[in-house]
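Worked Example 4.2. Consider the chain below.
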Amino acid sequence: MSRPAARVTRTVLAAPAHRTRLVESAARSSADAVFLDLEDAVPEQEKHEALQCARSALLNLDWGDKTVLVRVNAYGSRFIEDEVRTLAPLARLDSILVPKAEGPPEIADIARWIDAAEGTARAAPLSIDLLIETALGLVMVEMLAQSTPRIAALHLGVGDLSGSIGARSAEIGGSPDGYRHTTLSPCARYVETPLDLFAYPMMRVLVAARAFGLRAIDGPCGAYRDATLTRAWAEKAAALGFDGKQVIHPSQIDATRDAFTPSADELAFATRVVDAMRQAEAEGKGAVSVDGKMIDYANLRMAQRILMRGGAA
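Applying the procedure from the previous section yields the following structure tokens:
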């Protein structure tokens, strides 16, 4: 089985599967992707109802061209196998999002359940997206990324990861207030520099995704009413190289999508790089100057990626 086709998933909106109104709103939203949640957003006693609601939504709602995922319960729960077998045959489901991914053999089991249940109604094989949100999952991320060809993306689960490592953080996606570096300046003044709890896990998930041809999706900004934090944290993930970010409220969609969409200036410069390198190739050169900068094939590949994200290449 070949890797799943690439999708545009700049914004991945979460919706509790048992909350019909929110699911319908998500289907109408401008998000690139939606995941219906059967896990953390659903109380234990409502798991069965949530599964049936997800099935009904996949069968009956108009999802347009969105990528549609369902986050099932964690491997080892009493719910997951039935969830996978119920959902796998549904043609409108693009991917199953597996939370708390930790062991490649567990993901291989899930892939086998899909093999047995998928059927022939689907236009493309059902994908698996993995949520890396525990200390063990982060340690195992490279192995998880290659555990089955069905894997399409790695997501960073920022809230659960904070809990898994014992971080004293009060905001999902944010660093603890006390995580800062304090130095004494030459003029005898103390200088504090805030540090980013997620710099290491973000980079590790991103590198694993790129090493195995997968998309990388950052976790959400829990402060959904704070437009500044929503935009800033999305811009951080986009600048690092992530393909998109989970959002927990429709109000976060526009700012997050904009962060992952190259600006007009970025696209213009990338176009100049591509054009200049084509001309250089025609002249038998491997490098050329653009806007006072020396450009070679590494710059060309960077420029092509920017154009691809902007829909221009």
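The chain has a mean pLDDT of 92. The chain has two domains: 11-259, 264-309. Compare this with Example 4.1 before moving on.
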